[in-house]
Structures are given as C-alpha cells and as structure tokens.
Amino acid sequence: MKFKLTTLLSLCITACAAPNFDMSKLDYGPEPLNYKEIIMEQSKLFVNDPESIQVKWGNFPLRKHFIYNRWTGERESHGWMVCYSVNGKNAYGGYDGFSPRMTLIREGKAVYTEYDARAVKSCTQS
C-alpha cells in the first residue's frame, strides 16, 4: 500500500511540473519587418468598417515564449510579440475607443492575439 501511494504521489508531482526544455534553442524565425501589415490584415477581419481602423503602435517586435494554459501545458508557442491598440467604428458609425492588443507573429503569420486585460498583462510582463 505504501509503495502504491508513493508511486501515485510521484506521478502527480511529475505531471504537474513545468515542461523542461531549453528556451535558447527555440526557433523564433526571422524578425517580421512587415509586422504592421500582418497585424492590419488580421485586424480588418474583426471590425465593422475595415477602412476605418486606427492603430497606435506600442513596441517593435520582441521575442516571446507563451504557455497559454499552465495547468495542461496546452498551446505552447513562441514568436515575435507586438503590442498595440486598435480603434474601429461600431455598427452605428462611431468609434468605440482604443482597445489594447498583443499579437504573436511567427514565420510571417499572426499565430495568436490577446485582447484587453490579457494583452495589457502580456505587454507589461515583457
């Protein structure tokens, strides 16, 4: 019985541990020099009037590694992070106000975007 309990406990501890890998070996790909175009194309998919988009750029692309769900290790990714704010027209034709965003770019494509409070948290922790 003691052996089973010890084995079960060690399996639980091993399963809950963070993934062990060398982050220095991650391939972030080339720095996206066209990051503004990539983000503008993606942003146009989610607004009522794509031509009315206003953007305030926050930073140049920075290398970033993410684990989206720390409990399961699910959706682990890495790439070039860009922080910015977007303003677009609502259904009534008025602007809603700037909303913070963070987009992760890898190999010339937007692979993940965070909105509002999550974007602010990601951008301030970089």
Q: How many domain regions?
A: 1
Helical fraction: 25-40%
Global geometry: elongated
Largest sheet: 5 strands, antiparallel
* Number of strand elements: 5
The H/E string reads HHEEEEEH
Rounded mean pLDDT score: 79
Radius of gyration: 19 Å
* Cα end-to-end separation: 47 Å
Number of helix segments?
A: 3
From the helix content, strand content and strand pairing, which structural class follows?
alpha+beta
Proportion in β-strands: 25-35%
Could you describe the 3D structure shown?
This protein is of the alpha+beta class and 126 residues long. The chain has one domain. Strands 1, 2, 3, 4 and 5 form a 5-stranded antiparallel sheet that branches. The N and C termini lie far apart (47 Å). About 4% of the residues have low confidence.
List the helices and strands and how they pair.
Blueprint: H1 2-16, H2 35-43, E1 54-57, E2 62-69, E3 74-87, E4 99-106, E5 109-115, H3 116-124
Antiparallel strand pairs: 1-3, 2-3, 3-4, 4-5
Give a summary of the structure in a few sentences.
By secondary structure, the protein is an alpha+beta fold.
What brief labels describe this structure?
5-stranded antiparallel beta sheet
